[in-house]
Amino acid sequence: MAVLQMQRISIYALRKDRKPILEWIQRRGAVEINDALEEDNVFQRMDASTQKAQIEKNIAASKQALEILNRYAPEKKSLFAVLEGRTEIPVEQANAFGGKSDDVLRVAHRLNERSKDIADCRGLIQKLQTQMEALKPWMNLDISMRTKGTKSTTAFVGSFPAGYTAGDLEEQIALLAPKVPVYAEVISTSQEQTCTFLLCGRADAQVLEEALRTLGFARPSSPTKTPPAERMRVLQERMEEQEQIIQEAEQEITGYASQRDDLKFLVDYLTMRSEKYDVIGRLMQSRRTFVLTGYIPQQDAGKLTQELEGRFGAVVELEAPAQEDDVPVLLKNNKFSEPVEGVLESFSLPGKTEVDPTSIMAIFYYILFGMMLSDAAYGLIMVIGCGLALLKFKNMEPSMNKSLRMFFFCGISTTFWGFLFGSFFGDAVAVISRTFFEHEVVLGPLWFEPIKEPMRMLIFALLVGVIHLFAGLAMKFYQLWRLKCYKDILYDVIFWYMLVGGAIVFMLSSQTFVDIAQLSFILPAQAGTAAAVVAGIGAIGIVLTSGRESRNPAKRLLKGLYGLYNVTGYLSDILSYSRLLALGLATGVIATVINQMGSMGGGGIGGAIMFILVFIVGHTINLGINLLGAYVHTNRLQFVEFFGKFYEGGGRKFAPFGIHTKYYKIREEK
What we know:
The chain is an alpha+beta fold. It has helices at 18-28, 49-72, 81-84, 91-97, 101-135, 166-176, 205-214, 228-255, 260-280, 298-312, 341-347, 358-373, 376-392, 398-421, 428-436, 454-482, 486-508, 511-517, 525-545, 553-565, 567-576, 579-598, 605-642; strands at 2-3, 6-14, 32-33, 87-90, 153-160, 182-189, 194-201, 284-285, 289-297, 315-319, 331-332, 664-667. The two termini are 30 Å apart.
């Protein structure tokens, strides 16, 4: 449970050593660079935006090329690829890649070009198909669709928006232009369209055209110079040419599959360069020197200083951060507590005056999660699954490792509470033995069964809640003690302990409360009287001190009364822990229902098959749903109830200049 102490670091070195120093610091990943220094006549920042923009462009091209390669030549991955982590390579291999990065980048551009060729060809094929589809009704026309006629005749090539025969068409035209002799030929007809060739004398062309317009006649939007059949052959040949280009491009793309690893490393290599140029643009540089400032964990400062001075002849200054500095936060916890750092970070990192609550939070996190899921079989599944993954995949990413370790410990807690409450796939042991072996074997609880004694479980859940909240107040006590705010400890912690704790003891001495809670004990009346006095003193203290920052007596009193009103918040917080009962019962009841449904087929072979299917599907769904519910509600109890007593957060995460790659991680030389 520690927030690592940070030191301000300033590095002064020759400009000619800038590249190796920055690359070395980047591989160490221990220094967060900031922009604390101001420019002057000697030291100024270099404009690296052009270089960085070009690198970003190359990164985008490389990622696109990798996506293209994966599309046409998919990479074979195992089902557990997400657990395998990044491939580790020595730093010498990473440095050697710079010599061939340009060649790999050309491959990336070539892949993008060929992909564009494929896209262009497919677009053209679609266009050709549209043209061919439009030509199909005209295939019986053996002249050009642009035919206008002869010296003495006028031809009309077009279509009507209805189905006509040649005779019908001549009759319609005769009604509209009775004195015009017309030759009509139907090329093709359907219910929606009739394609025709019409011929009349040139002198009658205008009259006929007006009649045709009345019938909805329209010329083709893209008439061909050659007969439609010939044009169709040309379009088909062009489409085959495009298909051939696509096939060749796809073959060329798949031929680059052997360079997939180089493309992956190119993305990482350019990403590292981009981060380096981002830092270069923030350095203060003169003609011959440069200055780098930032923050470094105190535990790393000595070794890094020694290596910088010995390896590069740099000058390093270390100093404690000023009070007003925006110092980043880096947590350090043991293997038990470290997994829940991500949960804490999702809320907020500790502020400047706060302690890291991870260790205390971890204890309650695992306990609360286990109580909510509370099935020994589900817990064992989590323990075995996470444990095997942690043992087998040693190279997995730290974030994944933390998540699996968190659920491993949650699984242990779930198993513990499951055996205490007598739940192993619900009542699966009893149902299976009764249904298939005609002899019931009951796996009894080591403590009690919440389904049969819900009130007892509720009281226990509320007790856990009180302990959790009081632990939050204890954390506040510790924080105020570190800040030497001794009066605030009395006002904001002790008085609340007295009020809430006294009220709880007083209720435990009340026969009415004991009867409602079905408790097997009652505290003596003298203890209740003493507790009431203690609670009263706490209440008076809260009223007198909650508004202590106000000089106006009336405002101070009103703020004090409002502060006392917050006792209802404690009541609400304690009642929130009833969700431990609700979720625990939900898991057990649903599991029991699943078992009963599975056993409805009886004890024969058919019944066994039915039971197995219902059992696997039902318990898988039940585990998934309640696992999610336990995770969400455990987080809520931490964020709202526990943190609400002492924790505000607001810290900024330590973001060192380092290697943030996607596919490879670099192994530094010893």
